[in-house]
Amino acid sequence: METVSGGIVVVHAVAALFVLVLGPVQFIRRPKDRVHRYLGRAWLGAMVVTCVSSFGIMPGGFSWLHGLSLFTLASVSTGWVMARKKQWSTHAGCMIGAYVGTAIAFVFAAAVPTRTIQVTLASAPGLVVAIVGGVVTLAAGAFLAVRQVVERSAVQADD
């Protein structure tokens, strides 16, 4: 079993939390504007980090979660290509599907008592609260900063 002190586990957990927090913001708000595109790029980057880092966490060897990571990488890559081609419904389907897969993996990781999430919750709940709080703050800050930059550039374009 991996421990939370493993750097790859921390990178994986923080990136996955960022994906889980920022995903609903992307799905709920208006699509196809600059804020959506900039936050989408950050979300996509975090998704890639989440998937790639999962291959550094293989205490029992390759599992269905690693298969999900491969599928998710293919899905978000396809979603990015579809956005570039302006095929919005396919783009949305790929990205929402990738998000749902990440949420399912999170539920599995949180539900199994021997997984790092459960062990860390029991042994260092303050650390979990700090990490989750930091990720939520980072996601909110990213959203507000991007929105402010986009609004400022729109005002300057109107002048």
From TrEMBL:
Transmembrane residue ranges: 6-27, 39-58, 64-82, 94-112, 124-146
UniProt keywords, alphabetically: Membrane, Transmembrane, Transmembrane helix
InterPro entries: DUF2306_membrane
Extent of the signal sequence: none
One Pfam entry name: DUF2306
Designated name of the protein: Membrane protein
